Amino acid sequence: MRKRILLSLTGGIFLPFLYLLIVGLIAYVVKSVNGELRNDSWWFWLVTLPFEGGGRLYNFLFPAEFEKPYALLKAPAIWSDILGSFLLFGVLTYACLWWRSKRRRFA
User: What is the domain count for the chain?
Assistant: First the structure.
């Protein structure tokens, strides 16, 4: 149990950076092939969907009626993006490790 929690914390730290690297590589390849990268395409939205958690966390913590101009440049917005990615990838890592341990136990 402790090992699973420690590994999920590690996954929450390293997997967002790895995923960002993969998304950057995909964007680079698409830009090289097509000459441009359209941010409104469905595949781009689907690939960047895991990073939406931080924005939703920011909107929950700081509702729009209290928002000031240039809110995306504020430190709470940046920290909520980092925290949202950490939580998402940490929970996903924990779920994968839990599923793997249950599968081994019943096999």
Answer: 1
